[in-house]
Write a structure and sequence with these properties.
Number of helices: 2
Largest sheet: 10 strands, antiparallel
Helix content: 10-25%
Radius of gyration: 15 Å
Distance between the termini: 26 Å
Number of strands: 10
Structural class: mainly beta
Order of helices and strands: HEEEEEEEEHEE
């Protein structure tokens, strides 16, 4: 992964860089999964989070197809930075209750912060619907990444991006 763009993404998007133990990687560091998505895997939902009191919103839908391709879209809005962007989802990897996804940024409201044509990625966590279940989670988004960085993110499934509790919305991973 290109560390410079990841650092830029974390600094711009994270607010606080204190990842909790719930952000620990679901697989051993460096463990590589197949680059092909899980056929039939899906991640669908919306997530409203707060970072330093500032709202962030995301809506996403991605599904792994039998031929190994992925169909999906994501829209992310970081209100404090006055930027929103649309991503065509090109990779999806599901590990347990987590989905790692990303793709090409097709639209941006602020090219100085998020550039079209580059890659963006994030992870979500589905913690169930039952009363007393922990809140669903979503990571901050990596932006302005290379194709290689996106492939690493979906292939290595490491939680390099800190997560936030979903305050409003619902995440479904299957």
């Amino acid at each position: 992964m290109k560390h410079a763009s990841l650092v830029v993404a974390i600094v711009l998007m994270a607010g606080s860089l204190n990842a909790t133990s719930r952000d620990a990687a679901p697989r051993a560091a460096g463990a590589r999964l197949s680059a092909a998505p899980n056929a039939g895997a899906a991640a669908i939902g919306s997530a409203h989070t707060l970072s330093g009191g500032e709202p962030r919103t995301a809506a996403f839908a991605a599904v792994g197809l039998p031929d190994g391709s992925v169909s999906g879209e994501a829209q992310i809005n970081v209100h404090a930075l006055n930027v929103a962007w649309h991503t065509r989802i090109e990779c999806l990897t599901v590990v347990g209750n987590r989905a790692f996804m990303g793709g090409t940024i097709t639209e941006s409201t602020n090219e100085a912060v998020v550039r079209t044509g580059t890659k963006s990625y994030f992870w979500v966590e589905d913690n169930g619907e039952e009363g007393g279940a922990a809140p669903d989670r979503i990571s901050v988004a990596g932006v302005n990444e290379t194709p290689e960085g996106l492939a690493d993110f979906c292939g290595l499934v490491q939680n390099l991006l800190p997560g936030r509790d979903v305050v409003h919305g619902n995440v479904q991973v299957r």
